From TrEMBL:
Its main location: mitochondrion. It is found in: Mitochondrion inner membrane. The lineage of its organism: Eukaryota, Fungi, Dikarya, Ascomycota, Saccharomycotina. PROSITE patterns: SOLCAR. GO terms for biological process: transmembrane transport. This is Mitochondrial thiamine pyrophosphate carrier 1. Keywords: Membrane, Mitochondrion, Mitochondrion inner membrane, Repeat, Transmembrane, Transmembrane helix, Transport. Belongs to the mitochondrial carrier (TC 2.A.29) family. Solcar repeats lie at residues 17-103, 116-201, 212-294. It holds the Pfam family Mito_carr. It is a multi-pass membrane protein. InterPro entries: MCP, MCP_dom_sf, MCP_transmembrane. GO terms for cellular component: mitochondrial inner membrane. The chain crosses the membrane at residues 169-193, 213-235.
Length: 302
């Protein structure tokens, strides 16, 4: 479809998005993305954790076992804390991104030094990932525990929270956070860097051929999510193992997993994770960008 100008990129280095705009748009994007992709997230977690019980489990066997034993509704286990997690994560990630983006850009302008677009975006993305992870990690812990439970009846979020506190104290809600910080911070930086690169490429296509890719935000978000996940997936697996293990030493969990399952064990469930992560990234960025444009067009939040 021909277009006079490319769609505005609200995540670019030169974008000027306020904290309030990004807070609202980020919350909406998180809620929508989670509502659509919840079943894939549950399957991904079950498959990642299945090696603990069955070395020969596959995607199809994991899904069949889950449906046979627990029913279709089990696909939404842990959805309440997950919805809270996604709303908080989307809000905190995009808000911190816009604030850091504006702050780092202003610092460069005032001090006279300049970072490349790629380095700027990666740095801001890492900072956004750090802030959002620390804020939302306890809900990620609850989501993982609930999704990993094979009990037929639904466990309440409050019950799981009490069990964690009884067994490990307040620090139990942050079990595995160190590999999580490394995983999510790196993933966030890579995601925004990949998205920036993809948007830059589509802008060049528009300039040269006069055509705009339909749903460019979703397409670039899909590419960015896939790239970040492929690089950081082993750390994500390690994080999940630590969240359900009584062992708090990340190196010991890593060593045990490598000794028992080899390198491939860290990529167990990668395809189903990609099936969930890539669409989630596409939906999240598309809804975020659209929400910013819509609120500005309607003169909301101004």
């Amino acid at each position: 479809m021909k277009s006079a100008s490319p769609r505005e990129d609200h995540l670019s280095k030169n974008s000027d998005v306020s904290a309030v705009e990004s807070l609202v748009a980020g919350s909406i994007s998180g809620a929508v993305a989670r509502a659509i992709t919840a079943p894939l997230d549950t399957i991904k977690i079950r498959l990642q954790l299945s090696l603990t019980h069955d070395k020969n489990s596959t995607l199809s066997s994991t899904v069949k076992k889950l449906l046979r034993r627990e029913g279709v509704t089990a696909l939404w286990k842990g959805n309440v804390p997950a919805e809270i997690l996604y709303v908080l994560y989307g809000a905190s990630q995009f808000t911190s991104y816009s604030m850091l983006n504006n702050g780092l850009r202003d610092l460069q302008d005032s001090s006279g030094f300049s970072m490349s677009r790629s380095l700027h975006t990666f740095t801001v993305g890492c900072g956004a990932g750090l802030a959002s992870t620390v804020l939302t990690y306890p809900f990620d812990m609850l989501r993982t525990r609930l999704a990993a439970s094979e009990a037929k009846q639904f466990l309440s979020m409050s019950r799981v929270a009490k069990d964690i506190y009884r067994d490990k104290g307040a620090l139990g809600f942050f079990a595995g956070i160190r590999p999580s910080l490394l995983s999510i911070v790196a993933s966030s930086g890579l995601f925004f860097w990949s998205y920036s690169l993809a948007r830059s490429t589509t802008d060049k296509i528009h300039e040269q051929f006069g055509y705009r890719i339909w749903g460019v935000e979703a397409v670039c978000g899909f590419i960015a999510g896939s790239t970040a996940k492929a690089i950081t997936f082993p750390l994500d697996t390690l994080r999940k193992r630590m969240q359900i293990s009584h062992e708090r030493n990340g190196f010991r969990v890593f060593s045990a997993n490598y000794r028992n399952h080899g390198l491939f064990g860290f990529y167990r469930g990668f395809l189903v994770s990609l099936m969930k992560t890539a669409p989630t990234s596409a939906i999240s960025v598309f809804v975020y960008e659209y929400s910013i444009s819509a609120t500005r067009k309607a003169r909301i939040l101004l």
